[in-house]
Amino acid sequence: MNKYELALVVSAKVEDEVREAVVEKAKGYITRYNGTITEVEEWGKRKLAYEIQKMHEGFYYFIQFEADATCPAEVERHVRIMDNVLRYLVVRKDA
Question: Between 3.30.300.20, 1.10.760.10, 3.30.70.60, 3.80.10.10, what CATH number should domain 2-84 receive?
Fold first, then answer.
């Protein structure tokens, strides 16, 4: 099992319930592909480095998880088409 981190930037224009549903859906994709979530960090609303879809702010989430090598590609495939996700990135964390 490798350690990974999923960084999500969620639109600041959506309601709290919708934003939390987006994060739960992303966590669901991780567990669906045999990943184990170890930690979820919520950084809150931050200013974006550049404008994305005419937005200047977004909510940042960092989800650490352990999974097989095939899981990150599947998670990215699903997160890519999710509504209200401005940016995402899955990176492998070294030991």
Answer: 3.30.70.60
